[in-house]
């Protein structure tokens, strides 16, 4: 990415340390425009990184975190709206330092819509090649399961008739058909596989590959990864909230 063309924001901590992040408006326009709108309103100023997990990520942007007393549960606040997912994969993936939009789980948010304000910065870890291969295998199994579940849903009435009639043979034959169709579709769509760039990045730099293709990536920390490292190493209490609040001020660097 070209920092001379894309918007740059600074995330400044109370101790004066600074992260400088490049945003990607051409790739995630709605997410970036919303983020910048909140930045210009001072929405993030005084909020804390309320969820910090070592070797994983740091998360902030909950408006309820500003001045929140110790022990107060955080993480559900926002501006009152969500942003449609803008997932561009594998062009953007979860390497160390990327900014991604947080969101609710697939169970309540199958469209993967992003939080209107909460974001996280990836730290992660480095992976060995065999770990990535195992992850590819797991992703392939999940792909098969998702497609099979969708096919079963499409044949719901047929399945229920077999069960009502206690037609075990008919049920097994249909199951075999759905398994064959599942494998056919997976082959046509292509099983998940990390690109050469992902493999190089995850084995040398680090990140969180298990989040790939699941969350909207909309920027990257270009300067100040040492600040991210320091925050993700902080002492935390219940709910992954840092023992000592880590507040931020986010500003747009004007050209």
What report would you give on this structure?
With 255 residues, the chain is an alpha+beta fold. It is 34% helix and 18% strand. It is built from 6 helices and 10 strands. The strands form 2 sheets. An 8-stranded antiparallel sheet has the order 3-4-8-6-9-2-1-10. A two-stranded antiparallel ribbon has the order 5-7. The chain is elongated and about 70 Å long.
SSE topology sketch:
Layout lengths: L7 E6 L4 E6 L5 H12 L8 E5 L3 E4 L21 E2 L14 E4 L12 E2 L3 E4 L6 H26 L1 H9 L3 H22 L6 H9 L12 E7 L1 H8 L15 E5 L3
Antiparallel strand pairs: 1-2, 1-10, 2-9, 3-4, 4-8, 5-7, 6-8, 6-9
Helix pairs in contact: 2-4
Provide key terms for this protein.
single chain, 255 residues, alpha+beta, eight-stranded antiparallel β-sheet, two-stranded antiparallel sheet, 6 helices, 10 strands, 34% helix, elongated
């Amino acid at each position: 990415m070209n920092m001379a063309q894309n918007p740059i924001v600074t995330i400044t901590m109370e101790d004066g340390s600074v992260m400088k992040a490049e945003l990607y408006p051409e790739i995630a326009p709605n997410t970036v425009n919303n983020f910048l709108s909140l930045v210009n309103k001072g929405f993030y100023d005084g909020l804390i990184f309320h969820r910090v997990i070592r070797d994983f990520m740091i998360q902030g942007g909950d408006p309820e975190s500003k001045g929140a007393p110790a022990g107060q549960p955080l993480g559900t606040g926002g501006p009152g709206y969500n942003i449609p997912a803008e997932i561009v994969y594998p062009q953007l993936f979860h390497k160390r330092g990327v900014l991604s939009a947080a969101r609710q789980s697939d169970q309540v948010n199958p469209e993967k819509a992003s939080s209107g304000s909460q974001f996280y910065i990836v730290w992660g870890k480095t992976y060995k090649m065999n770990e990535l291969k195992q992850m590819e295998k797991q992703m392939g199994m999940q792909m098969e399961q998702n497609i099979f579940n969708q096919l079963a849903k499409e044949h719901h009435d047929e399945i229920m008739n077999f069960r009502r009639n206690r037609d075990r043979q008919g049920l097994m034959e249909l199951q075999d058909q759905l398994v064959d169709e599942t494998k056919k579709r997976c082959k046509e769509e292509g099983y998940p596989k990390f690109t050469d760039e992902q493999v190089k990045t995850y084995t040398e730099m680090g990140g969180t590959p298990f989040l790939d293709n699941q969350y909207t990536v909309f920027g990257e920390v270009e300067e100040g990864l040492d600040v991210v490292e320091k925050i993700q190493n902080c002492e935390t209490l219940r709910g992954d909230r840092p023992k000592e609040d880590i507040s931020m001020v986010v500003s747009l660097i004007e050209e």
